[in-house]
Amino acid sequence: MPVRLDALDRKILSALQEDASQSLDDIAKEVGSSKTPVWNRIRKMREAGVIGRQTAILDPEALGLGTCFFVLIRTSEHESEWQDKFLGVLRARPEVLEAHRLAGEIDYILKVRVANARAYDDFYQALISEVRIYNVTALLSMQEIKSTTILPV
């Protein structure tokens, strides 16, 4: 169930999404409030689960991880034992940035970030050695057009 947020909460969330490292004074000034009410609202939104962990956004190119693949997976296995193993394998692989279970012909889609095609093949070989998969299709991203973590609040 969604948490009730007023206009000030949404302004605070927008400011935090833009730059969570800014000071409480800066956020309060930006949203037109004072420090204590802003801090109390942030605390309440953390407690309610609206605000999760805070992280730094890294540049994959600068880290030598400039190649992004979207991996489409079809499986003939749908038992909970297979699914538990598959999900465990995905969670253990740092190359997997996102994994989604889908409705339709494709069962799962993964966003995989690696150094190059050879590194993707290493990932692929490790994946299929650990869990049985019916079909895998890898799509190389030629250009990232939009990537954001900012939700429309």
TrEMBL record:
SMART domains: HTH_ASNC. Residues 5-66 form the HTH asnC-type domain. Coiled coil: none annotated. This is Lrp/AsnC family transcriptional regulator. Keywords: DNA-binding, Transcription, Transcription regulation. PROSITE patterns: HTH_ASNC_1, HTH_ASNC_2. It comes from the Bacteria.
